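Okay, can you check this protein?
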Amino acid sequence: MSKIWNAAEYDISRRRLIPCYDLLYSTAVELAARSIKVSSPAILDLGAGTGLLSELVLQKIGGISLHLLDESPEMLAKAQQRLAQYSPKMHIQQMTDSLPSGKFHAVISSLAVHHLTNEDKRNLFKRIHQSLLPGGVFINAEQILGENEWQQQLYEDMHMNGARALGSDEDEIRAAQERMQHDKCATLSDQITWLKEIGFENAGSFFHSFRFAVYAGWKSAG
């Protein structure tokens, strides 16, 4: 949701603050499982935070050469504890920096890319495409912008009401709203268009519930 998080409370808060949490993450994991056909895939998790998405993918696939990228040492320290048995490679850096060297079968991300400007998003998508092996997939579980003011207000109302129903108190709601003032979300349609323009195949939305969505695109296998 935003990079200004307390790493110790991140996972518990995220589940309360994302009303569609299970479907959001399970869709991303299922796309990864269906796309990766090799026994020891290399996966890069961008804005990996505490390693939540990577852990779910590992539980589904296993045998992964895992790279975690995040600008927060505190977040990656939590991820290192969580994923120690898998010996992940840690990259403390921003997503606007050069991506780790090597080629990947999948690049995954959850609720991180919306911290970038639209120009930086497009540049990131280009670098992701270059980093993927033929047939590789980019999967992003993301927070998106409404197509107009009416839709955006609906997204915000549904999000906050859903969070309250899941147990978020008003202090947690206010903190979330303050963090989201720094977000730079883009519409789902724009982001899918950018993927297609860069050359991703079959780019599209595979889950969408108000301000949360999972979109993906594949690099040509040819």
Confidence is low (pLDDT under 50) at residues 1-7.
